[in-house]
Amino acid sequence: MQLTLRDFFMRLPLLSGIGLKTTTACWHWVSQHTELTNVTPAILTQLCQDMAIPDKRAALLLDQLFTAAVTARLTTNLTHSGCLTIADAAYPVALKETYAPPVALFFRGDLRLLQRPLLAVVGSRNPSAYALHAMRLLLPRVVQQHIGIVSGLAQGVDTLAHQVALAYRGPTIAVIGTGLDHCYPAANRDLMDELTQNHLVLSEYPWGTSGARHHFPERNRIIAGLSNSTLVVEAAHHSGSLITANIALQENRNVLAIPGRVDSPNSVGTNELILAGAKPILQPEHIIEEVLVDKLP
């Protein structure tokens, strides 16, 4: 049996016991073999040997990849959603350039939004009134410049970022840490439905996958990877938003931060980012000039 590269990458997230480290190794090997068009058991064995994939994990790959059970799982996913693989021409170049790009993204909505200039917006799940006010002041002008807002559909800053985009008739993309049949938090179900119908929701997790703690840091790398700039609205000292900011820095992306009160625990992270070199955002133009740096006169 042989698989096209697209089929190979669609199947990888469906395999039990196979995680990000292994799928990334598979992608790196395939990217080094540009002549490759299909994957057979023999080619997969060679991949595992070349990439020093442990025997137990290599056995999981070989035992599952070509089975009817995985074909059935793939059919279920494609019945409910689309799938964009790293082998597809529509896969975002910026995301492909990251160290550990998702080999497949299940989606519902309009993939054309990935071609827009994009701004990642992250921050506290329990934002202060100051943070919410700052977002309402800064983001509308950004959205009106046809810049898409990318966030994670979490409560707090993520939710308001998506809502501002909708209110000002701009595009918005949610990257979630569950399968597309789950919504976390459940209170955002109506918002998620709106995005799947008129915007875009992405997940690297197959249909039926519930949330797990490690999914959300993994999700953050996609949010940062899709965008050339990441705006941190408000973040405590050990906030998950700082993980996204650090990923953006590692991928040579712009990190922007809204300055906060010096006596606010929720602003410690953003103020430290600015101290470390992140661009302080005081007005919408500061964001626009970063995102549209190659498009402004």
From TrEMBL:
Gene Ontology BP terms: DNA-mediated transformation
Gene3D superfamilies given in the database record: 3.40.50.450
One Pfam entry name: DNA_processg_A
Signal peptide: none
Domain called Smf/DprA SLOG: residue spans: 83-291
InterPro entries, sorted: DprA (IPR003488), DrpA_SLOG (IPR057666)
Similarity comment text for this entry: Belongs to the DprA/Smf family.
Protein name, as recorded: DNA-protecting protein DprA
Origin species: Levilactobacillus suantsaiihabitans
Gene: dprA
